[in-house]
């Protein structure tokens, strides 16, 4: 070993004999004064030229941490020596040590983070070379710590983020280094930075936004790249939004090269992701700006994806996808839209062309690329388009459907990778932030709304069935349903889970109506029916989940009519529990409500149903119709309904309200159920007669019920 080290030592000595002489003096120092003098000489030699890692380690071995610690904390300097000179010497030594990654992560360096952070904002003569050197060395130490695996966490805990913000806002010496280190920390640990220093970071954002709005030179393009990192995970201050929008409007309204335009598009996409359209002012200027954004995004997408063989700037195109999605939302908004009708027509046309380019790209994606984030982003924007528009590009969409089913199946079967892809898409498109609820972690959820529309049409539906989409949807529904089952905290689930379940129900409803043979022959629907039966009783009791319960009840009733011969529906405990819960859902929708100045009450929606009736009423009427169809197919159902007292309570409700308050479609729905129950069971007929059923039927002109109850 000695022979190996000897040449290296001789080489170091020959390269920097002065440093070796000073190190010798340091080792031989007998007191603080001699050690201090030797350290000054060592520091001077180190700054005079580059040193390698071995020499740096030899300096550390000679000095250690004890003396630098004393220099940093001493309050008494030798006569004639300013106290900051001692601190500067201590920081210089730490900066030298921190060039070694192992030493940068040393506890003796980490516990100096609060002291080093204070040097960034220390007051003093800005022209003092020693002070400037101390600030530079402090930044060097903190930057070195940030480069270690756990360094950012230690810096954040040590108050460095606030110190950096104050240093930048003070625009003192080294403020540009403060901004660079802030950018690195936000990129590495954004959430923790904002949690620890939100007021200070917001102050920096205000300063950057104001600078961006005022900038007339090339600095505005540099700010475009920095600003996305400083947008908070919570609400962006209104004054910042105004400045950012004004700055972007000025940039994007000019003739630019791609390197100037692309950062602006990415910043706009980040704002769209964080704020929707709230950052765009209402009125003529806002509508023109939004139209400009979407047009530029569509042009960029077409240029990137239509020409085969060109290199796609995936981060820019994904940002453009976010702006297109904003355009889709505004074009489909009926109230308080920023866009005028002619603008909507024009944007739909240009977005259609861009979506055509997306389809063209996806048709060329092979199996080896299916797990790439950009493919996920492309499927996402297509899903957003199909959720609102399926009539245009129908041929192209049908051509792509087999790929979409295979893609969704691949990601569903590798759910963890799908979630990781969602994170990568957010990073690719916008910033290092983690994805919010608008970036769901599976491809299938993105496609559900579009598939819901497509299953109504014969051609697309046949392709989806042929490719195995119904079976995939059943598996997906059952997997998602597990997240809402007992034992899981549904309060922490994102809304997208419940919305996804509802959309699945709508797709299944379409298949029940348009492809009943599929429901009867595919075993996956038997499993689905079993889940619906066991789940509904608990679901109807849960507050705030009435709309999902309506979907489950109605779907289950319609499927029960098709699967009526299944053993599971022959009066089993699960089937009885399901129909009891379905009756509860159907029977509690309306109540008798007294009206001032009138002797008779009126039929009114119950409080739970009133607020969501617009979304609920179609399901309710369909559920009533489906229940009516189940009664003659399931002999045990009419006696079960009688035991629940639904027919008696329904007649009592009708007799207690004014017939004029009951709409004709309600009369028809109620009569349908009552007639089938009366026809199916003698005891039901007798119970209805005892409840003045014939008289009530006469009042409501329910001729079929009146005739049925008049028979033996």
UniProtKB/TrEMBL annotation:
A Pfam family (short name) is Neurochondrin
Instruction: Name the InterPro entries on file.
Output: ARM-type_fold, Neurochondrin
Q: Which SUPFAM superfamilies match?
A: ARM repeat (SSF48371)
In the record, the note on similarity to other proteins reads: Belongs to the neurochondrin family.
Q: Which PANTHER family match?
A: NEUROCHONDRIN
Task: From the Swiss-Prot or TrEMBL record, give the protein name.
Answer: Neurochondrin
């Amino acid at each position: 070993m000695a022979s190996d080290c000897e040449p290296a030592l001789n080489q170091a000595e020959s390269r920097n004999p002065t440093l070796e002489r000073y190190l010798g003096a340091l080792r031989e120092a007998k007191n603080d004064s001699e050690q201090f003098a030797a350290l000054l000489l060592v520091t001077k030699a180190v700054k005079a030229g580059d040193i390698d890692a071995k020499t740096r380690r030899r300096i550390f071995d000679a000095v250690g941490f004890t003396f630098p610690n004393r220099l940093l904390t001493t309050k008494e300097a030798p006569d004639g020596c300013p106290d900051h000179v001692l601190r500067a010497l201590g920081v210089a030594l730490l900066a030298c040590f921190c060039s070694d990654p192992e030493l940068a992560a040393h506890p003796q360096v980490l516990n100096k983070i609060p002291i080093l952070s204070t040097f960034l904002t220390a007051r003093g003569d800005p022209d003092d070379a020693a002070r400037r050197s101390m600030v530079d060395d402090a930044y060097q130490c903190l930057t070195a710590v940030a480069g270690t695996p756990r360094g950012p966490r230690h810096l954040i805990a040590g108050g460095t983020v606030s110190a950096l913000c104050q240093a930048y806002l003070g625009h003192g010496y080294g403020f540009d280094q403060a901004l660079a280190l802030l950018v690195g920390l936000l990129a590495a640990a954004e959430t923790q930075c904002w949690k620890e220093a939100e007021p200070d970071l917001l102050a920096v954002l205000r300063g950057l936004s104001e600078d961006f709005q005022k900038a007339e030179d090339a600095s505005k393009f540099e700010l475009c790249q920095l600003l996305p990192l400083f947008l908070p995970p919570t609400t962006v201050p209104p004054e910042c939004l105004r400045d950012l929008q004004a700055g972007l409007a000025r940039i994007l309204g000019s003739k630019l090269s791609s390197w100037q335009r692309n950062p602006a598009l990415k910043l706009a996409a980040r704002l769209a992701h964080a704020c929707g359209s709230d950052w765009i002012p209402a009125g003529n200027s806002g509508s023109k700006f939004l139209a400009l954004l979407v047009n530029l995004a569509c042009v960029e997408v077409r240029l990137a994806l239509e020409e085969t063989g060109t290199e796609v700037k995936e981060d820019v195109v994904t940002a453009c996808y976010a702006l297109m999605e904003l355009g889709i939302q505004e074009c489909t908004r009926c109230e308080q839209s920023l866009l005028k009708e002619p603008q909507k027509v024009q944007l739909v046309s240009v977005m259609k062309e861009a979506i055509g380019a997306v389809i063209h790209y996806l048709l060329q994606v092979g199996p080896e690329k299916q797990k790439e984030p950009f493919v996920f982003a492309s499927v996402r924007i297509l899903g957003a388009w199909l959720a609102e528009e399926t009539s245009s590009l129908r041929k192209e969409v049908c051509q792509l459907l087999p790929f979409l089913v295979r893609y969704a199946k691949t990601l569903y079967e590798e759910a963890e990778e799908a979630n990781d892809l969602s994170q990568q898409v957010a990073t690719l498109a916008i910033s290092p932030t983690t994805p919010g609820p608008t970036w769901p972690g599976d491809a299938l959820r993105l496609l559900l709304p579009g598939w819901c529309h497509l299953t109504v049409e014969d051609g697309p539906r046949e392709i989806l069935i042929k490719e195995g989409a119904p079976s995939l949807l059943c598996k997906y529904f059952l997997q998602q349903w597990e997240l809402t089952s007992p034992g899981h905290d549904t309060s922490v689930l994102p809304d997208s889970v419940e919305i996804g379940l509802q959309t699945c129900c709508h797709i299944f409803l379409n298949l029940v109506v348009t492809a009943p043979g599929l429901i009867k022959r595919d075993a996956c629907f038997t499993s689905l029916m079993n889940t619906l039966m066991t789940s509904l009783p608990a679901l109807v009791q849960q507050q705030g989940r009435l709309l999902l319960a309506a979907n489950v009840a109605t779907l289950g009733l319609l499927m029960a009519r098709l699967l009526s011969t299944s053993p599971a529906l022959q009066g089993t405990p699960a089937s009885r529990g399901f129909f009891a819960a379905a009756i509860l859902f159907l029977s509690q929708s309306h109540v008798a409500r007294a009206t001032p100045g009138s002797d008779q009450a009126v039929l009114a929606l119950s409080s739970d149903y009133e607020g969501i009736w617009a979304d609920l009423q179609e399901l309710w009427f369909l559920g009533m119709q489906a229940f009516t169809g189940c009664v003659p197919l399931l002999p045990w159902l009419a006696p079960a309904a009688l035991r629940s007292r639904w027919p008696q309570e329904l007649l009592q409700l009708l007799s207690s309200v004014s017939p004029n308050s009951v709409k004709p479609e309600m009369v028809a729905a109620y009569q349908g159920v009552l007639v089938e129950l009366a026809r199916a069971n003698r005891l039901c007929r007798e119970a209805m007669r005892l409840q003045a059923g014939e008289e009530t039927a006469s009042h409501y002109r329910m001729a079929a019920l009146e005739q049925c109850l008049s028979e033996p």
